[in-house]
């Protein structure tokens, strides 16, 4: 089986990256062909499998710009399955739908960033209590503006893209 893993990065090594690289090693031992697609502005040395770079694509314009390169990769690598990992901020939600229509696609959710734009703190901005709301209107009511990294706020476009990504992942 040919498996194409897609993740924003493979270094620096964290939980997702360690699991991804271990999965690739074990898949190869089992006789599967594996490769990884990462953002082309990240490091990819010392990978146990071939690594291909792809430009980042956040929104619709980025998806339109990157789609031909992704299409070429799919044609060249001919994967039997696409295995998505941490792709937030790397692949536009529109490209997730494109992948799903071209190849069987699965996604491993490594952390809460897919379902919570405040995943770094997991606390409601106004009260400081743990959040129990699904991503949606209540995020806006209780947490907006949403700080995604120190000093970085998620705008309405980013919030909309997160909602699109969650919807694409459900499909």
Fold blueprint:
Elements: E1 2-6, H1 15-29, E2 33-39, E3 51-54, H2 60-77, E4 81-84, H3 93-102, E5 105-107, H4 137-143, E6 146-149, E7 152-154, H5 156-170
Parallel strand pairs: 1-2, 1-4, 2-3, 4-5
Antiparallel strand pairs: 6-7
Helix pairs in contact: 2-3, 3-5
Helix content: 25-40%
Please work out how many helical segments DSSP would assign.
5
Structural class: alpha/beta
Low-pLDDT parts are none
Approximate strand percentage: 15-25%
Global outline: globular
Following the backbone from N to C, one meets helices and strands in this order, namely: EHEEHEHEHEEH
For the largest beta-sheet, the strand count, sense and barrel status come to: 5 strands, parallel
Q: Average pLDDT value?
A: 84
Question: How far is it from the N-terminal to the C-terminal residue, by CA?
Answer: 23 Å
């Amino acid at each position: 089986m040919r498996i194409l893993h897609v993740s924003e990065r493979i270094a620096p090594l964290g939980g997702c990256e360690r699991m991804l690289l271990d999965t690739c090693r074990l898949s190869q031992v089992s006789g599967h062909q594996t490769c990884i697609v990462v953002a082309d502005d990240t490091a990819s040395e010392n990978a146990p499998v071939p690594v291909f770079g792809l430009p980042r694509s956040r929104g619709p314009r980025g998806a339109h710009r990157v789609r031909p390169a992704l299409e070429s990769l799919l044609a060249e690598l001919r994967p039997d399955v696409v295995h998505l990992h941490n792709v937030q901020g790397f692949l536009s939600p529109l490209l997730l739908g494109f992948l799903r229509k071209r190849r069987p696609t699965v996604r491993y959710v490594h952390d809460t960033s897919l379902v919570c734009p405040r995943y770094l703190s997991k606390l409601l901005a106004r009260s400081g209590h743990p959040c129990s709301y699904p991503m949606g209107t209540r995020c806006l009511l209780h947490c907006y503006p949403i700080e995604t990294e120190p000093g970085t706020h998620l705008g309405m476009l980013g919030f909309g893209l997160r909602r699109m990504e969650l919807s694409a992942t459900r499909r």
